[in-house]
Amino acid sequence: MTARLAPTGTDRFAPARRSTPSDPGPRRPKADLAVVAAHSRRSNLRGVAITLIGLFVAGFVMVAAHTVVIGQQHQIDSLNQRIAAEQHDAQQLGAEIAELQSPVRITRDAAALLGMVPAPTPVYLEPRADDDARAAEVPPGSAVTR
Questions:
Q1: Is residue 81 part of a domain?
Q2: Cβ atoms 107, 118 nearer than 8 A
Q3: CB 25 within 8 A of CB 17
Q4: Distances (CA, A) of 16 to 4, 20, 64, 112, 133
Q5: What is the DSSP string of 29-92?
Q6: What average pLDDT does range 79-96 have in this prediction?
Q7: Domain of 82, in residue numbers
Q8: I need a surface site. Which of 7, 10, 66, 136 has the fewest CB within 10 A?
């Protein structure tokens, strides 16, 4: 890619003249080329050493982070196992409570352990009309203490 230079002594805002193959245009001075000094071997080794140290530190940090993650995952797994065991125990205890509260079991244990027997026929109480008035009475011979 070449840059086009305006000829000296002309208006710098005037459009540049296009050259044609028959008219090459004004001669341009060639740019001075210089050899760039090669980097010393020492700076190359320093760059390589810094890169290697950086890679080692990055790898070490990654290994340390993975170690922490694995340790935390182990704790999470053990807690999940404990939760599952406790849920299983809670289900078993719920089934045991349901069995202990069943009326069949209560009747069976009352007869076997306490010697209780079911009543032959239920007795229903019928209220009388004067029960409300008599409920407020104080029985004779009992002293009211305040």
A1: yes
A2: yes
A3: yes
A4: 8, 13, 65, 121, 129
A5: PPPPP-PPPPPPHHHHHHHHHHHHHHHHHHHHHHHHHHHHHHHHHHHHHHHHHHHHHHHHHHHH
A6: 97
A7: 42-114
A8: 136
Residues 54/59/63/68 CA torsion (nearest 10 deg): 40
Number of H helices, E strands in the chain: 3, 0
Q: How many domains does the chain have?
A: 1
Give the other-Cβ count within 10 Å of 7's Cβ: 13
Burial of 52 (0-12, 13-18, 19+ CB in 10 A): exposed
Residue 121's pLDDT band (boundaries 50, 70, 90)?
Answer: confident
Classify residue 142: in a domain, yes or no: no
Residue 119 included in any domain: no
| Contact (CB, 8 A) for 89 and 83 | no
pLDDT confidence bin for 80, thresholds 50/70/90:
very high
Q: Angle at Cα 40 formed by Cα 36 and Cα 41, nearest 5°? A: 140
Q: Do the beta carbons of residue 27 and residue 4 sit within 8 Å?
A: no
Q: Residues for the chain: how many in total?
A: 146
